[in-house]
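Hypothesis: this fold can be encoded by more than one sequence.
Test: take the structure tokens below, design a sequence, compare later.
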């Protein structure tokens, strides 16, 4: 099944209900085969990242969004495990500080966008400002619409100045979230991962689905598409994100800079 089926470039007919969180459209048939493919992709992506960094004329921003326990941290570990940290930066956005709240909501985000040759991975992002803020009524509908427009303009600015943006919604079901939260409670070694606030936010599940659907529909463009990644399966989630990145690099076609003829004259003594 092609990635086009999960790439949202226009929100006109987008419905989150049309995408099943437990599907495995890119699976090779079993977990072992999927892990082998993931390893193969990771090795190839590692090479592409090296060339991308050496070329040093473009930037790549990967946005990971999803409900609590959807696997943003796990995706970073599973997909970017072999990337050279020299050209990779992971940014985790938490609740804004007083310093950040004193400025516009995009200020802290713009400061973290990738540099030339760099891949930046946003673990949560500027989309929190049209998700949790909308669900809890901290902004009204008019302000939400203004922010959609501002986010589209912000992403247009980034793409217009050499940044490729890949936005992934890690789509998990309510039942799978329940299982993962219960797993954290049952295992003392996972207690550090459990946050009681996750139970509070779970009560707003339907509101978050509405907010995500609206945000994805309002900010999907051909230049900055959203990808809906079925995430009930951790292995398939990582495989699909890796396949998406492979597709992106195939289109970018990074190349090493041309050799410097002056270096041929040098001798190491």
């Amino acid at each position: 099944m092609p990635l086009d089926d999960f790439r949202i470039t226009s929100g006109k007919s987008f419905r989150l209900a049309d995408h099943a969180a437990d599907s495995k459209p890119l699976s090779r048939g079993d977990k072992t085969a999927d892990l082998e493919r993931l390893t193969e992709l990771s090795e190839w992506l590692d090479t592409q990242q090296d060339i991308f960094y050496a070329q040093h004329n473009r930037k790549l921003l990967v946005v990971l969004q999803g409900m609590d326990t959807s696997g943003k941290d796990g995706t970073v570990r599973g997909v970017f495990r072999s990337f050279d940290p020299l050209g990779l930066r992971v940014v985790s956005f938490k609740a804004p500080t007083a310093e950040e709240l004193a400025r516009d909501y995009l200020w802290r985000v713009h400061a973290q966008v990738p540099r030339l040759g760099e891949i930046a991975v946003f673990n949560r992002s500027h989309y929190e400002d049209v998700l949790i803020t909308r669900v809890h009524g901290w902004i009204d509908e008019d302000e939400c619409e203004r922010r959609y427009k501002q986010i589209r303009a912000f992403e247009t600015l980034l793409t217009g100045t050499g940044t490729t943006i890949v936005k992934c919604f890690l789509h998990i079901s309510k039942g799978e979230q329940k299982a993962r939260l219960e797993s954290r409670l049952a295992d003392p070694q996972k207690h550090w991962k459990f946050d009681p606030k996750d139970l509070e936010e779970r009560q707003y599940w339907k509101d978050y689905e509405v907010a995500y659907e609206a945000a994805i529909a309002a900010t999907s463009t051909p230049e900055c598409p959203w990808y809906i990644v079925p995430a009930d399966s951790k292995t398939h989630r990582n495989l699909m994100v890796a396949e998406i990145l492979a597709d992106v690099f195939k289109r970018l076609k990074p190349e090493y800079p041309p050799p410097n003829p002056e270096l041929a004259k040098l001798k190491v003594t």
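The longest helix spans residues 31-55. The mean pLDDT is 96.
Hypothesis status: open.
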